[in-house]
């Protein structure tokens, strides 16, 4: 992919965010990408390829936001980036994004200051196109052309909707928050969708039948099972110098309950 970019745009500066996303984990990729984007210069072109549906009818996508361009499959990989915009994405035809577990994507409309294009100009692709490696043959060359100054409308055709992942519901009531593990990082930390302030006080965090009675401020503050507000601003369940996912035998979709937040 790097070679394909540099062939089209020799002056490109290519920076790796990560190659450690779990196989097929579009939700994890979406979260990691969104956490990295704010630290890159304006007008950066981000290429994200976690693409279980490569070669299928899923569309190749270019999304343009006020600060960056995004190239990759239209499978929800840009969901968290789009939800983090000043003007949030909206459900198409009032589709409810809320879900109790990861699953099928839903269509969404972009705010007025963004645009989306289906990448459909084969003359800008690397030929012949592999059915199993669109990252190399479609997404990387398109990113190179964008970096060389080719305008978005020369890359593809404007589309009205993009695919987004469902929100995993967070229920807040009577001093209690019920959320879900949305990803597991390479250390085995269970990253949830529960966001609270770093100074919040909690009396109980429950996961997989285990209880944690306080939030830690660093990973070695407690011995064994602990909870911490991670770099994404969400509660993580961790195990000191070990994998919480392995120790607890759980993963994405596991329910987590937090009580008495202030």
Looking at this protein, list some descriptive labels:
18% helix; Elongation Factor Tu (Ef-tu), domain 3; 2 domains; five-stranded mixed beta sheet; Rossmann fold; 262 residues; 6 helices; nine-stranded mixed beta sheet; alpha+beta; single chain; elongated
A few lines on this structure:
The chain is built from 6 helices and 19 strands.
Task: Give a verbal description of the structure.
The protein is α+β, with helices and mostly antiparallel strands and 262 residues long. The chain has 2 domains: 2-167, Rossmann fold; 170-259, Beta Barrel (Elongation Factor Tu (Ef-tu), domain 3). Helices cover 18% and strands 31% of the residues. The chain has 6 helices and 19 strands. The protein has helices at 2-8, 26-36, 79-83, 134-147, 152-155, 244-248; strands at residues 44-47, 60-64, 68-73, 90-91, 98-99, 106-109, 115-119, 156-158, 161-164, 167-168, 171-173, 176-184, 190-195, 204-207, 210-212, 215-216, 225-229, 234-239, 255-259. Strands 11, 12, 13, 14, 15, 16, 17, 18 and 19 form a 9-stranded mixed β-sheet that branches. A 5-stranded mixed β-sheet has the order 1-3-2-7-8. The longest helix is centred in the middle third of the chain and has 14 residues, at 134-147.
Largest sheet: 9 strands, mixed
CATH classification, class level of the largest domain = Alpha Beta
Number of helices: 6
Radius of gyration: 20 Å
C-alpha termini separation: 47 Å
Unreliable segments of 5+ consecutive residues: 93-101
Number of strands: 19
Report helical residue fraction: 10-25%
Mean pLDDT: 89
* Beta-strand fraction estimate: 25-35%
Helix-strand pattern:
HHEEEHEEEEHHEEEEEEEEEEEHE
State the CATH topology of the largest domain.
Answer: Rossmann fold
Alpha-beta content class:
alpha+beta
| Count of all domains | 2
Shape: elongated
What is the CATH homologous superfamily assignment of the largest domain?
A: S-adenosyl-l-methionine hydroxide adenosyltransferase, N-terminal
CATH architecture annotation of the largest domain: 3-Layer(aba) Sandwich
């Amino acid at each position: 992919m790097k070679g394909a970019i540099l062939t089209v745009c020799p002056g490109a500066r290519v920076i790796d965010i990560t190659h450690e996303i779990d196989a097929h984990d579009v939700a994890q990729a979406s979260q990691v990408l969104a956490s990295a984007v704010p630290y890159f210069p304006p007008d950066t072109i981000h290429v994200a390829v976690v693409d279980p549906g490569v070669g299928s009818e899923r569309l190749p996508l270019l999304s343009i936001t006020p600060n960056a361009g995004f190239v990759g499959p239209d499978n929800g990989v840009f969901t968290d980036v789009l939800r983090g915009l000043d003007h949030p994405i909206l459900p198409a035809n009032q589709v409810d994004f809320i879900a109790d577990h990861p699953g099928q994507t839903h269509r969404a409309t972009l705010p007025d200051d963004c645009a989306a294009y289906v990448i459909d100009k084969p003359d800008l692709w690397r030929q012949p196109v592999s059915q199993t490696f669109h990252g190399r043959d479609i997404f990387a060359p398109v990113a190179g052309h964008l970096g060389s100054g080719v305008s978005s409308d020369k890359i593809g055709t404007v589309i009205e909707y993009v695919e987004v992942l469902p929100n995993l519901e967070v229920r807040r009531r009577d001093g209690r928050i019920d959320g879900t593990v949305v990803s597991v990082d390479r250390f085995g930390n269970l990253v949830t969708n529960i966001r609270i302030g770093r100074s919040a006080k909690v009396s109980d965090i429950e996961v997989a039948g285990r209880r944690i009675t306080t939030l830690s401020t660093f990973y070695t503050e407690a011995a064994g099972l602990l909870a911490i507000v991670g770099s994404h601003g969400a509660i993580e369940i961790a195990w000191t110098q070990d994998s919480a996912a392995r120790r607890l035998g759980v993963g994405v979709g596991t329910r987590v309950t937090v009580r008495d937040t202030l």
